[in-house]
């Protein structure tokens, strides 16, 4: 009750323009944003060695530079309020590369390292910085990746989904609301002593600590 919401259309692939769009809205509204959730669509599938340098740079812009510029814009208000949350939705490739997602495997860990730096620099101001690492989650992007895999292997989408589900200790893929629940917790006052972490939300699939 009493909440107000405003949508700003901006392309995170052009970080300067995205930052300027948010800056203009802040100037017009005199609002302060205390919670920043960075969530950008992943790069196209493919091997790392075959990736075009332009594709890597585009992913760096959308995933890392856009997040950095928005954090620079918003942290002064967070510092003044002595409360802030920066949450990056990245990927389990931060901990373990995912075959066939070369560009993502390159860029996601860079975002995690950036976040770790910020967590140390901003902690004294009541600002936490964390990463949420979704595993296989039912989204349009995952469906597109699975369709490509099915076509390449000459099998059905159902067969690919069953194979993936069997590799997850929970026995199923995640749902978007389960990722959102992790983000909501990290954004809450209850998570005030959690900062600089990579939180997998993957049904236990990751084989590393």
How would you describe this structure to a colleague?
This protein is of the alpha/beta class and 209 residues long. The protein has two domains: 144 residues, Rossmann fold (3-Layer(aba) Sandwich), CATH 3.40.50.720; 38 residues, no CATH class. It is built from six helices and four strands; from the N terminus they run αβαβαβαααβ. Strands 1-2-3-4 form a four-stranded parallel beta sheet, with helices on both faces. The termini are far apart.
CATH level-4 homologous superfamily of the largest domain: NAD(P)-binding Rossmann-like Domain
CATH class of the largest domain: Alpha Beta
Q: If helices are DSSP runs of H or I spanning 4 or more residues, what is the number of helices?
A: 6
Return residue spans where pLDDT drops below 50 for at least 5 consecutive residues: none
Overall form: globular
**Rg, Å, rounded:** 18 Å
| Tally of discrete structural domains | 2
Instruction: Based on the coordinates given, report the CATH architecture of the largest domain.
Output: 3-Layer(aba) Sandwich
Classification by helices and strands? alpha/beta
Order of adjacent strands in the largest pleated sheet: 1-2-3-4
Helix content: 40-55%
C-alpha termini separation: 41 Å
Q: Report the count of strand segments.
A: 4
Q: Classify the beta-strand content into a percent band.
A: 5-15%
Task: Summarize the structure in short.
The protein has 209 residues and is α/β, with parallel strands linked by helices.
């Amino acid at each position: 009750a009493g909440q107000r919401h405003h949508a700003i259309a901006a392309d995170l692939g052009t970080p300067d323009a995205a930052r300027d769009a948010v800056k203009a809205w802040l100037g017009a509204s005199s609002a302060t944003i205390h919670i920043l959730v960075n969530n950008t669509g992943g790069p196209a599938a493919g091997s790392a060695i075959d990736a075009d340098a332009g594709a890597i740079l585009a992913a760096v812009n959308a995933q890392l530079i856009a997040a950095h510029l928005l954090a620079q814009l918003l942290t002064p208000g967070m510092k003044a309020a002595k409360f802030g949350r920066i949450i990056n939705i990245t990927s389990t490739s931060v901990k373990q590369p995912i075959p066939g997602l070369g560009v993502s495997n390159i860029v996601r860990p860079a975002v995690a390292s950036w976040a770790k730096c910020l967590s140390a620099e901003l902690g004294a101001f009541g600002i936490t910085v964390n990463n949420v690492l979704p595993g296989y989650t039912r989204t349009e992007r995952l469906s597109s990746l699975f369709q490509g895999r099915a076509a390449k292997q000459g099998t059905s989408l159902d067969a690919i989904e069953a194979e993936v589900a069997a590799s997850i200790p929970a026995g199923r893929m995640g749902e978007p609301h389960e990722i959102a629940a992790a983000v909501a917790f990290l954004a809450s006052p209850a998570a005030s002593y959690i900062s600089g972490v990579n939180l997998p939300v993957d049904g236990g699939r990751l084989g590393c600590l």
